[in-house]
Amino acid sequence: MDFYRAAGRPVTRLPWSKEEDKVFESALVLCPEHAPDRWALVAAQLPGRTPQEAWEHYQALVADVDLIERGAVDFPGCWDEDDNEDGAPDRRAGKSRGEERRRGIPWSEEEHRLFLEGLEKYGRGDWRNISRFSVRSRTPTQVASHAQKYFIRQTNAATRDSKRKSIHDITTP
User: Fold this and answer.
1) For 86-123, b where at least 16 C-beta lie within 10 A, e where not — what string?
2) Where is the Myb-like domain (predicted)?
């Protein structure tokens, strides 16, 4: 853990909570960037935080943004749902009334296997983590839709004999 001296004694720095981050971001917007006492104003919005901690938290945020902008952070491009299949942003103003809905790309056996592993690891309903850490090529919405079809197929297993084969019939990772 990090330590620093305040009033002559070491003090433990606590990690920032999500609530503190939200208040911090709001305070950054409200407090002028060039105000001489900006960090005191920001810290005043955060009980238990010092101006020094607010400034250090801001510096860490700036460093993170810099890494993201330089492309040093690996994240799946599939999270941008406004992108085309090739990853380029969709520049169309919107679909005309006569345009048909675009069909999805079928899941591969490998993606389904990764889905089953993620389902085992993160549990039913945690589609975001399954998407982020298991099936990185699919969005949380796509994972949820796939899961819905998978569970319906498993529930109706008794009547499956008359149906054609499906990827949802695969039950082990």
Assistant:
1) eeeeeeeeeeeeeeeeeeeeebeeebbbbbbbbbeebe
2) 8-62, 99-151
User: CATH assignment of 109-158, given 3.30.420, 1.10.10, 3.40.50, 1.10.3470?
Assistant: 1.10.10
> Which amino acid does the sequence have at 165?
K
List of residues 6+ apart from 91 with CB closer than 8 A: none
Q: Dihedral sign for Cα 140, 143, 145, 148, please.
A: negative
Please state the separation of Cα 43 from the chain's center in Å. 28
DSSP 83: B
**Which fold does the domain 18-70 belong to in CATH?**
Arc Repressor Mutant, subunit A (1.10.10)
Residue 3 phi, psi (nearest 5)? -130, 150
Q: Cα separation of 3 and 11, whole Å?
A: 6
- The predicted-structure confidence for 103-148, as pLDDT tens digits, reads as follows 788 889 899 999 999 999 999 989 999 999 999 999 999 999 999 9
